[in-house]
Write a structure and sequence with these properties.
By secondary structure, the protein is an alpha/beta fold. Helix content is 32%, strand content 22%.
């Protein structure tokens, strides 16, 4: 089983941690303020989630990154090459306080993100639903809530898709980042905030 790290303990990072905790899946969560600042959160989440350092979280097999866009370079600076490990890009190119879109000059935000995580196999996921829907029960209206993913490495997409299914959601693979990441990018893409349900 892949080990999981979470960089960022804001709305999306903590929602992902709650989804993992609900299934008893172990993970290490870290933020910029250090493990001590996360003690209340990990106490709430239960024994499967523990606080760690940034380096410890970033060393896991699958690392979800959910950090305010302007703080991403600092959050990822100085980390070792990811060496082919999977990094989930759960970020949106907005300035949180102002909710103002970042100027990307026509690029997809994941293209910018890839440059910050050398050696990583990047998969875009967990950014398009409101955090309370990620942390809440994945079953809805008799079906399963949909989570989209995209990435340029098919095996990495399959691994993240399997994790999404393990969490109880229905995974839809949108293909490479140039296509899929553009569809789920917020703001700009047509898919963010759509609360879709798959009926089996």
């Amino acid at each position: 089983m892949n080990t999981i790290g979470i960089l960022g303990a804001g709305a999306i990072g903590s929602a992902f941690a709650r989804a993992l905790a609900r299934q008893g899946i172990p993970a290490v969560i870290a933020n910029s303020r250090g493990p001590e600042s996360l003690q209340d959160l990990v106490r709430e989440l239960g024994p499967s989630i523990r606080a760690g350092t940034r380096e410890e979280a970033a060393a896991q097999d699958i690392v979800l990154v959910a950090v305010n866009w302007s703080k991403l370079p600092a959050a990822l600076a100085g980390l070792p090459d990811f060496g082919g490990r999977i990094v989930i890009d759960a970020n949106n190119p907005i300035e949180a306080a102002l909710f103002k879109p970042v100027e990307l000059h026509g690029r997809v935000s994941s293209e910018v993100f890839v440059e910050l995580v050398p050696g990583a196999r990047v998969v875009k996921a967990f950014n398009h639903l409101q955090p309370q829907l990620v942390s809440g029960a994945p079953g809805a209206e008799g079906g399963r809530r949909v989570l989209f993913l995209s990435g340029d490495d098919a095996r990495a997409r399959a691994a993240v898709g399997a994790l999404i299914e393990q969490l109880g959601f229905f995974a839809i693979d949108l293909g490479p980042l140039a296509i899929g990441a553009r569809l789920v990018q917020f703001p700009g893409g047509p898919l963010p905030a759509l609360n879709l349900v798959r009926f089996d």
